[in-house]
Hints:
By secondary structure, the protein is an alpha/beta fold. The protein has eleven helices and eleven strands.
Amino acid sequence: MTATRINTVLGPIAPAALGFTLMHEHVMVAASGLYQSYPDLLGRGPEARAIATLQRAKAAGIDTIIDATTFDLGRHAPLLAQVSKASGVNIVNVTGWWLDVPRFLRGVGPNQMAREFVRDVVEGFRGTDIKAGLLKCAADIDGVTPPLETMARAVARAHRETGLPIMVHSHPGTQLARRQIEIFREEGVDLTRVKIDHSNDTTDIEYLKWILDQGCYLGLDRYPGRLVSPRMRTLTLKTLIDEGHGDRLCPSHDCICLHIHNERADGTIPEEHDYQRSNPDQYLYMHRQIIPMLRELGTTEAQISTLFVDNPRRFLAGA
Length: 319
């Protein structure tokens, strides 16, 4: 299925309008409802800080970000719309589920959740007319637990109904995508519309090529990251390009602009949250660090454009 329009938080746009796109980022990560109830935990002036950060991104040539923030990660769609309008950056938000399935949802079935996710796409997030442009599910080091399997199957069924692509939080250290892809096959998902994220937390080329062989895209979206050095992440990316897989690779940061500012032992509250201190460049790390490294390694401008312009457009719109 090919989409003629893609839902952003400010309304649908043509695929060609996506431009330079970062395929896995976050404007805000928090507990569900925290922004509305306890906004001071996010530091001073969170809206202005998010707008300024994305204005800098726009000035550097970033046209679109995929905001991978689900309900359980604290999504607040009106904030995303405010930030997008003020910065000029397109924001495509997801529906689906991350890892935090509360006890009150245990026993809820995949068809029930699929209906909710479809409503987010067709009608909009509750109380707004802001519609999801992408689906998301997740599992991590503990594997695809029963509650997370419910969410994965719900996302798969919502995909079949809406035609939207799926981004998947995965754990490459345990080769978890093998089980996630198995579930998608059982549900009849078009695997060319699936992106397995956090894949550059490993340098296991054989495993990454197996995912690509299934038809999926790879989200190489943890920069600078912790488990693998930025240079090794980039060498893995370059190896996959050189072996002919450049048309299904999506580098990004998994940057978090707004997050909880944790109190120090002495009782003071830092101006920057922990994730910002680990990546002061925020959404510009790719431009300042990784794209220059790719050029040094011999990557062409056409190949770079494929990574950040062509691949996001084809994944979101469908080939």
